[in-house]
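Encode chain A's predicted structure.
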Amino acid sequence: MASIPDLIRTFQSGGLSHEELFARIDRTLAADHASARQLADMLSEENTRVPLPPGVYEEVLRRIERRGATQFEEGGEETRMETGPVGAPFMSSSPASSPSSPSSSPASAEGAGQALPAGEPAKGVGDTLNGRFVLEECLGVGGMGTVYKALDLRKLEASDRRPYIAIKVLNVQFRGHPKSLIALQREARKAQTLAHRNIVTVYDFDRDGSVVYLTMEYLQGKSLNRILRAPDFTGMPYAKALPIITGMARALSYAHERGFVHCDFKPANVFITDAGEVKVIDFGIARVFQQPADDADPTVFDPGTLGGMTPAYASPEMFEHREPDPRDDIYALACVTYELLTGRHPYERLSANQARSGGLKLQRPKLLTRGQWRALRAALSFDRATRTPTVARFLADLGAARGGMPPLARVGAAALAGVLVAGGFGYFAWRMRGADTRPPPEQAAAGAPAAPAQAPAPRAMSMQAVAAVLARQPCSLLAASARGEHALQVRGFVAERVGTRRLQEDLGAVPGVQAVNLDVQPLGDDKCDVARLVSPYWSGRRAGDALATIRTRARNGQLGEGTPLVVDITTPPFDTYVYVDYYMADGRVVHMVPSSRSRANQAPAGYSASVGSMGDWVVGRPFGTELIVLLATPAPLFDALRPEAEPRQDYLRALDRQLGPMAAKYGEDHIGADMAQISTHAR
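Encoded structure for chain A:
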């Protein structure tokens, strides 16, 4: 008997009418022992190759779901979700994304594992959910759910210009899985946690009777899978593929920094909007590799038990059921990148285990340089230990790291700088010639009046002399920049015993300095030890983008008792490990990152983040003038978490032991530091 893919291909070639197709499908479904999930996957795959008319696709899917519901009621599918073959595609793809909006109260697991009431039909095109969402078009299907374009009647009533949303409706057979409701609720929560321009997020999680669904913003476009599976697709030029690679990488990097691994990254889970935006979708089986501190039930549900994995993109470690790791996603990202550039899978769509046991060798794409090929090959390693450690490193090695310029761009910038210097010299010479207004000798002899005497021009200030003055200031972190030929801008921290008046006088005494603008904070003697430690790496003295910065959100640095302590940080344009420490008035240091509340501290290049935005740190006694210090280092400072709080001197000695050798090995310019001063007080 013909399989569903065979029937669809026959229909596409004109060999079957609509009625004949549906009749043959029914006979196949009655005899085929494959699960409804597997049949839905077959349908989706065929629809990706050559799209079916929407009405036909929806009708075939409805018949598959109806058959799945019947099987479940008879007990035939009750345990297949857990005992099915590992690696079968399980999660769906949904063309949706938007900034997250507050979730409604998540549904509890009550009722999980219940089948549809007898005779209740599956929801499909033309049906309405909760009297509000009209399902108008089927957009895609996966093992977990079917995605529809839906009309939101509330938005329509409000004359919203965009009344459409996307809805993922849980498939009938998946709703029967004992943990399915928990899975969907967790997917909703994770999607809202991962609020990023390149990651899909969801609006809400709800149910209509036994039908459970997610609501998401509706976007127009197509999946990367459809692009790659087009018959004439043979790969993209590197420059055209780079924005897609970068968008995918940024999404994964953002998720990894928050402790999530996607676990099923593949082309079908990447959506390209009509505007060219890249959206990574379906974090529905992402497993936490660093459990968030606010997750009170970390062992209740593990999405890995649902068998959600796609063999062609799964790392060898996933087949071994090892703990999820960002490098699992890096392997998948490299597979997709290879496919995007060449039009073919790096291992001919074999699983990593099959490719390794078969001794398959990677073929270098002709369009890649040697460096780019090394980067891609390292990310495709079968061994997690030798695989590229971070997404940021993968991008940097591939030549796509943010903040860097390709070689040609750097040459162009250097050439432009040369033109500006030459032009400046020519302009200076022209001014000198034009300034010589003395009459020629014969005109002077004729009695022409002499030009009035000009006062000598003020002596230009020397920034070297300014730097020498700043270096003499004790217990200070100061940086100066010129504002014109005779004005200075100085910022940073100055010792209280020096004060701003004396600093202004010292700088005003430098020849050529006529004006000094100070943007400095007084620093108490009790903070000199911290200033000395930070000084060699302080970003305030560095130019360009190689900065590590920390800023508080407190107005004028004032924080009252009970106020959350929130800081915003940025990292240098290279991979770093981030340390954020709170130097309290009582002589203790509280470690904010990494800590038991925020273990993840590895950051990609040019990364921006907020620390404490969830209210983890609240100002309390004792009160006074305190420091928050950021260190960004090229390697971990410590092998394990330090105590949540410890004496300042103990911590400074430990830092001093680590930072010196690290600076000698990597260079001081590869360590970034900054600090912010706050004043805390009682209510």
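DSSP finds 21 helices and 24 strands in the chain.
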